[in-house]
Write a structure and sequence with these properties.
alpha+beta; Aminopeptidase; Nonspecific Lipid-transfer Protein, Chain A; 3 domains; 13-stranded mixed β-sheet; 12 helices; about 30% helix; GNAT_dom; N-acetyltransferase domain-containing protein
């Protein structure tokens, strides 16, 4: 009989163990743990069980993530925790492997998470895929800004209006989520802390919004959520924030490497308060490639030789053909022996060899193909790098939500 822990669903009797696991992993209170489990849904937790007791666990979030202007089904992974006595015994790795098998079988072509430690997830085939940056701006930089658009307090908050603006913003970039229920609850939960939302009006409807939370003890104002669909909406947000200069010293917000508010400021002065990177795992190569959007007006092909030692049937050689924003993918036989081997039909005989973790980095556009080649993350000839650079071009991927 194997002494390895088994991957199973969460049961009501696991709560006592979860209180311990959450406390050790996240310093969570009992009330906080119970609330989180109820919010995510007990049915969405998995545990590693040894001799009947939960020794590790994680949460599953059914989400969608935007790439190339289209949503891709994404399984978010949260609250990964392993009992201290189980660390170093492979329990976390086996839990991740079992979860990925389940994720693939459930039809999610990609999985996304924030890593507390990179090696565990890199071993499971996750690759670094994008950024989440918290900017901090002293109010002195904004003083004197004016705008013709005056934000209007939204009371009560109409979630569907905010959802429409978030979706439009997400279509224009890479990585942002079509928020699941948990994330919208967090964004709008005024019971946890006071929140106020202002709309930026426009002739055809709202052009943006921002949600402000309370100031922290160091007199920093926090933008909890925001969107700016036009340059004037972005300027209106900055001008509105400038009006708080007598009540706070600085303001923070979550953004990306090509942040709209940063580039609309008339003066330099913002600093990076925190910078995190998230990781993505491709569980279905063909499904992920066909689900995302691609550049319009481009017709090109690329052969991908993908190594995936963990998920049977996911690695192998694939022929990607892109035309006018959509892709078809054909599974080829065997593995290519060189970066240029196995070119199929289409205009390009280009080929790339890479691991499934590196494919995630390429897929989101986090690094350029040439940079990845310089880092040894993929092998390809120059023609293949040029083709890949054209196909995977787009805004730098980022996330605003934590999960």
């Amino acid at each position: 009989m194997s002494d390895q822990p088994a991957y199973t669903s969460y049961g009501p009797s696991d709560m006592d163990r979860f209180l311990l696991l959450f406390r050790h992993a996240f310093a969570s209170t009992a009330a906080g743990t119970r609330h989180y489990v109820e919010t995510v849904g007990p049915e969405n937790f998995r545990v590693m069980r040894r001799n009947g007791s939960a020794v590790a666990g994680l949460g599953l979030l059914d989400m969608k993530q935007y790439f190339g202007g289209r949503v891709v089904r994404c399984r978010g992974i949260s609250a990964v925790m392993v009992e201290p006595g189980e660390r170093g015994r492979g329990t976390g790795g086996r839990m991740m492997a079992a979860m990925l098998e389940e994720t693939r079988a459930a039809g999610f072509p990609v999985s996304t998470l924030y890593p507390a430690t990179r090696p565990l997830y890199a071993k499971a085939g996750y690759g670094t895929a994008g950024d989440r940056i918290t900017y901090r701006l002293p109010f002195g930089v904004l003083r004197g800004l004016r705008s013709d658009l005056g934000p209007e307090l939204m009371a009560p908050v109409v979630r569907s209006t905010l959802e429409d603006m978030q979706a439009e913003r997400a279509r224009r970039t890479n990585g942002l989520l079509a928020r699941c229920e948990l994330l919208w609850q967090r964004a709008l939960d005024s019971a946890a802390k006071p929140l106020d939302t202002w709309l930026i009006p426009g002739a055809g409807g709202p052009e943006g919004y921002l949600t402000l939370g309370p100031k922290s003890s160091d007199r920093t104002l926090h933008v909890e959520d925001w969107a700016a669909l036009t340059p004037r909406a972005g300027r209106a947000i900055l001008a509105f924030l400038a009006g708080w200069h007598s009540q706070a010293q600085a303001v923070t917000w979550a953004g990306g490497p090509e942040d709209v508010l940063i580039h609309l400021m008339p003066e330099v002065g913002a600093a990076i308060a925190s910078w995190e990177q998230w990781m993505l795992r491709i569980t279905d190569v063909a499904g992920a490639l066909t689900a995302r959007g691609w550049p319009m007006g481009v017709r090109a092909g690329l052969t991908l030789d993908v190594n995936d030692p963990l998920l049977a049937g996911n690695g192998g050689r694939y022929r990607l053909e892109v035309e006018d924003g959509a892709a078809t993918v054909e599974r080829l036989s065997g593995h290519g022996s060189s970066p240029a081997s196995g070119a199929g039909s289409g205009q390009s005989a280009a080929g790339i060899s890479l691991g499934v973790d590196a494919l995630a980095t390429l897929y989101t556009g986090h690094l350029t193909p040439r940079t990845m080649a310089d880092l040894g993350l993929l092998e390809a000839r120059p023609a293949a790098l040029d083709t890949a650079a054209t196909l995977f071009a787009g805004p730098k991927p980022w996330l605003s939500d934590m999960f």
